[in-house]
Amino acid sequence: MTTSQEGLKRHNIHEEATSNYIPRTYSISNCYNTGVQKPINETGRNRKAIRVGKLKSKNMKKLTLLYGHPKDSDAFEKYYKETHLPLASKMKGVTKLELTKFVSAPDGGKAAFYRMAELYFSSQSEMEKTLGSPEGKAAVSDLPNFTTGGVTIIIGTVEN
């Protein structure tokens, strides 16, 4: 199985029950407080923590940040983990966070983006309240400090 196929399989919740692959689950507090993602348990096999259920809100919003390839990836990673994530962790109202570092494009070439951050909110108003708070404004205004490859921000409604 190629890396691309494994990545696709990770996101297919219907295959999760029949496959031997168990994705690792990360807690938001570990990602934010230490800047390093850590599995919830050492084996990453906490099935209760990785089950995906129906979302509680039909109006759940997702803010996606797509980071372009930085000029210096080591400097980006250091700043992202040591400065930006701890700053962003102070935002109240984020119900779920997913951080992705891209490996490659499906054909094995360079991925279109370097990283992705997905922040989930219970509603549009909760997202606006969070981003309009002093903590949200600080996190947004911090983006130019390390995004030398640019950042694309999009907002969507979660449908599943």
Order of helices and strands: HHHHEHEEHHE
The structural class is alpha+beta
> Between the first and last Cα atoms, what is the distance in angstroms?
27 Å
CATH class: Alpha Beta
**Count of helices?**
7
Instruction: Round the Cα radius of gyration to an integer and report it.
Output: 16 Å
Tally the beta strands.
Answer: 4
Q: Please give the CATH architecture.
A: 2-Layer Sandwich
Mean pLDDT, all residues = 75
Count of discrete structural domains: 1
Strand order in the sheet with the most strands: 2-3-1-4
Strand content: 15-25%
Shape: globular
**CATH T-level topology:** Alpha-Beta Plaits
Low-confidence stretches: 1-55
Describe this structure as you would to a colleague:
It is globular and about 40 Å long. The protein has a four-stranded antiparallel sheet with strand order 2-3-1-4. It has one domain (24-41, 57-157): Alpha-Beta Plaits (2-Layer Sandwich). Helix 3 packs across helix 5 (73-88) and helix 5 (73-88) packs antiparallel against helix 7. With 160 residues, it is an alpha+beta fold. Helix content is 36%, strand content 17%. Mean pLDDT is 75; it is low at 1-55. The longest helix is centred in the middle third of the chain and has 16 residues, at 73-88. The protein has seven helices and four strands. It has helices spanning 3-10, 13-16, 28-34, 47-50, 73-88, 124-132, 134-142; strands at 61-67, 96-101, 115-121, 151-157.
